[in-house]
Specification:
The chain contains nine helices and ten strands. By secondary structure, it is α/β, with parallel strands linked by helices. The protein is globular, with a radius of gyration of 19 Å. The C terminus is likely disordered.
Amino acid sequence: MLPPLSLSTCWNSRRHTDGYKMLEEIAGLGFKRVELSHGIQISLVEGIQAAIKDHVIEVHSLHNFCPLPPVARGAAPNLYRPTAPDAKERELWFRHTLQTLDFAVEMGAKCVVLHLGDVQFPWRDPVESLEHYIKDIPYTRLEHDKNYITLLSKTIERLREKSAAALPVLYNSLERLIPHVQERGLLLGFENREDLRELPLDESFPQLLDDFMPTGAVGYWHDSGHAQLKANLGLIDIKEHLSLNGPRMIGCHLHDVVDGRDHRPPGTGMVDFALLTPYLDPEKVVVIMELSPHTEAQDILTSRTHLESIFKSQTTDNAPITG
């Protein structure tokens, strides 16, 4: 048995001014559970509250910040950062994250997906240089490109140097937040990110989880599209990454990658979703389809069937389910 598939409101929140109708649309596709994404304007909240009260659908998870801070005009998960050098920005991150936690409790959710800040380069950003170099090079050629390999190595080294200074700030922010997570009986999902500057660096994920798992308030949140984009750059091996972090997974975002773009319907691109199956414990893991607003409703239904077929065939083949 595997966890039921849910759908993120990142697919349709921009098209709605009524939160009730937004959730009705998702329920109309046959989904019984939903993730409230980081694109939920405050104007949608009243309708969402009414829909949950009427049992239109259940909320499994929220993505910070939810609802959006009033200053945000659209989805803005990195509007405030727990790693910001400015204490005022970290305070805003803390305050609005607390609001997300409270809304999660109200909605009956189990998990809150969290971005963990970044490192920044005021000048000579090595990631910009790397992105400029590869913009016209197919990813299949990168592993044989000696100039790219050298540039990637230098970029990683500079990211390590920056992250060494930023991680203590992140730890302080999390240590302040986690008691509030514990009080509310929630879990924070530490999400792997696609931008090379965002923290933790992929190699640092196991240590971060080691340090905070004893709180009972955190877990790993796997994003399939982000992992594939990193794999295409030669930054991670997805199977190895999952072997290190997957046993502590509490949720995942499922979407495909087509021509270097993620949030595409599963089954249309290059992501091997079967790699996830050993870690999808139905008692512990929330599984969310996180799709572009441009995705057609029929493509959502087709991709849901595709995922269910993959997961069913893998469990039929006796793939182990671990926690």
